[in-house]
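Protein in question kept underneath.
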Amino acid sequence: MNPILNPKIRWLVSLSLAILTIFLVLKGLQLWSYGSDVDGSGIGVFFLGLEINDRVLEVNIPTYAIGFFIAGLCTLLLSITILTRLLFKSGSRTPI
C-alpha cells in the first residue's frame, strides 16, 4: 500500500494546508492594514519567523499583501481538493 494514499496522511496534509491558509490570509490582512502608516523607508516582511524581505517600500506593501492572499487562496483550493478526494471515491461520486 502506498503511504501517500493513506487517508490519515491526507487528513493531516489537508489540515496543515488549512492552517497555512489561515496564516497566509492573516499576514495579508496585516500588511494591507499598514496603509501609509510606515515610518522610515519601508518595513521588513517576516512570515513564520522567516524574513521575506527586509526593506519593502511603502508603495509595494499592497503588492506583498495581495501575494499573501493569492498564496492563501492556492493553499485553500489544494486543501479543498484533497478533502473532496478523501470524502468521495474516485470512481463514483458517493460519500464513503
